[in-house]
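Students often ask why we bother encoding 3D structure as a string. The short answer is that it lets us treat folding as translation between two languages. Here is a chain of 359 residues written in the first language.
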Amino acid sequence: MEERPQLIKLEDVSKEYDGTVVLSDINLYIRKNEFVTLLGPSGCGKTTTLRIIGGFERATTGRVLFDGEDITDLPPYKRRVNTVFQKYALFPHLNVFENIAFGLKVAKRPKDEIKARVEKMLSLVNLKGYGKRSVESLSGGQQQRIAIARALVNEPEVLLLDEPLGALDLKLRQEMQLELKRMQQRLGITFIFVTHDQEEALTMSDIIVVMRGGYIQQIGTPKDVYDEPKSAFVANFIGESNIIRGTMVKDFLVNFCGANFPCVDKGFGEDVPVDVLIRPEDVQLVEEGQGMLKGTVRSVLFKGVHYEMIIDTGEFSFKVHSTAMQPEGAAVGLSIIPFNIHIMRPMQVDAFEEEEAEE
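And here it is in the second language, the structure alphabet:
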């Protein structure tokens, strides 16, 4: 597959507000025609990063490059980007057509061109024929589509989206995830999307940038970030996890919960402490005498697609997702194949953990 060229590059970007550091030496590049998601908890710096790319904030240190050109000091209206915010900021006194056409009219485009481009956008967001309607008569999902159409009608090279689905209900949010990905693929432009929702990130993204406390924790495809998290924080933030303290006996062999398990990881050294990650769906329930570990079912929750069970082995309580339910109190065996055991360097206790422990 041909490598996409770089479009946006952040070099050693930091941001301070009144002496408080909210971004620390961010280095990130974004390629043309990618759907990139900045993912992390509140206060991690993802929206600040987006605003620096859009020109709404000025980096305290570092540079922003666009297609090789330094745009660090360029105002937002001179950048080839448009932004969709969580609050759509539609003009209530203008109808749908006029809202979408606003930027084109400011740019003094010909009337025929404006009409053609607005109609094209209405078709793209599946609102053909809605041009004369009042924006206040539309649902939240329809208003969001109008905000996206208004941003796209000016044909930006990059669309910035700051948690635009946050105000929608679950079903509509899931529908819009697919719609946004469809639009991005059809238009072939770069989308940079901010969210704290892991499902949104996994569903839509080509690349996920996981952030925490002003730092980038990991960059990768959704599959890489989910299957190969670099830290316990990433593992816990992207999906549910069993994280067990263990010992790397040697390459391809790890010990946890009092037993040795073959694994596929190497290069950690011998007899060194590690964190062991096992996803709940990767623990197989078997007969008590057949498993590598044995335990007792302490709780069962029906989740619709699967059951969520807590299995107590005495040394660790595993969260297990399975379509086969075992009742509370049942004695079971646990089996885990080597490929589903992921080894990580132990997470160091730092200021983040201390803050979380206090909360």
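Translate back mentally: The chain has two domains: 6-232, 240-358. Keep this in mind for the problem set.
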